[in-house]
Amino acid sequence: MAGTTTGTTGTAGTATGTAGAGRGAPSRCSAGTATGTAGAAGVAGAVRAGGRADGRARRTVLAALVASAVAIPVSAAASPDVPAPPPVVFAEDATAGGRYAANLANLAEAARTARSAGRTGRAAKLRAMEAGGAARFLAFDGRRKGRAVEVFGGLEGADRVTVLVPGSDTTLDTYQRFRAGAVALQQRLEAEHPRSAVVAWLGYDTPGTVSVTVLTAGRADEAATELRPFLDRLRELSGPGARISLLCHSYGSVVCARTATGPGVTDVALFGSPGTGADSAGDLPTGARVWAGRGTGDWIGGVPHVRVAGVGFGADPVDPAFGARPFAAGSAGHSDYLKPGTESLDSLAAIVLGTGTGTATATSAIVPAPGVSRA
User: Fold this and answer.
1) Beta strands at 196-202 and 243-249: parallel, antiparallel or unpaired
2) Cβ distance 69 to 54 under 8 Å?
3) pTM for this prediction
4) What are the φ and ψ backbone dihedral angles of 194, each rounded to 5 degrees?
5) For residues 20 and 199, what is the distance between their CA atoms, to the nearest angstrom?
6) Coil, helix or strand for 329?
7) Counting beta carbons within 10 angstroms of the beta carbon of residue 85, is it exposed (0 to 12), middle (13 to 18) or buried (19 or more)?
8) Can you spell out the DSSP letters for 293-324?
9) Which stretches within 10-54 are classed as H helix?
10) Over the range 113-123, which residues count as b (16 or more CB within 10 Å of their CB) and which as e?
11) What pLDDT, in 10s, does the model give residues 79-90?
């Protein structure tokens, strides 16, 4: 599922809890017939391996792959690895400012390395990420498909901090669409609450939109081991007593559903979600309020919510039976939730600021973490 634009822990991830180093993101797949056919064959094999799945369930899971293959146009074909310097390794007590400066220098070096290797497209994308030298990255790894954790707003003094977790096909080559959503959200929040910050967390290897991987939880399980320590360290870098919200798009909602959160995380919002792999909000490893929303223009609403032999993600988070608090998403399409002026952006901002008015149908089954109110 394409991002709104979003394994093993590497050296940078060990020191900062942000982005792991050394694992390459999967290549982006074209939306061509050959790719879709290969993916369908893979899913068919996985379903057959389940043994107990009946024919109807098999057809349903295959329909999910077909829906993902035809509904999202993917423009970039797979490309070979791009050379880049290793990420910066930080001491545990490194300041946010120190991380920003070192990662920006590493980003500039990655752009020069890519250009020297004849990878002018990647070099141009990296130069755009520099934002004229104003970008602030808590982590950056320019190798392979890359990872990046960027901050918008004054993190050190913020008492409302949002972490955006993207969906599939979010890489350094598609980063600008992810960044655009983060910028729009930060501008919306600052207009009402100046002490806000947004963190765009591309801290995991996102699956390809048209692939078997995007229908399984393997990448999400790996990402959760990166996101949990990052959230813990984020509390140390932000303002005292800051409330942290997780906003999780598409496959990113699968990541968030597998991430155990501490008391600093007060809200988890799932949007454009294919499902989480859980049967209900009460099954998620969090004491935070759980929200779910889907725009009327989002194609993912037509994907069957089933899980067979480890393929698919089961219950629909916007189904009242799931127990999440609903929020209005208007007519948003799959990649439109964070666009300026949309009802979905307003709703997500309200969740972050604590003014959301959604009501839950079964969230009473969720026991709040210490210090987290359900009100």
Assistant:
1) unpaired
2) no
3) 0.77
4) -60, -30
5) 16
6) coil
7) middle
8) E--TB-GGGGS----BTTBS--S-TTSGGG-P
9) 11-16, 33-50
10) bbeeeebeebb
11) 558 899 999 999
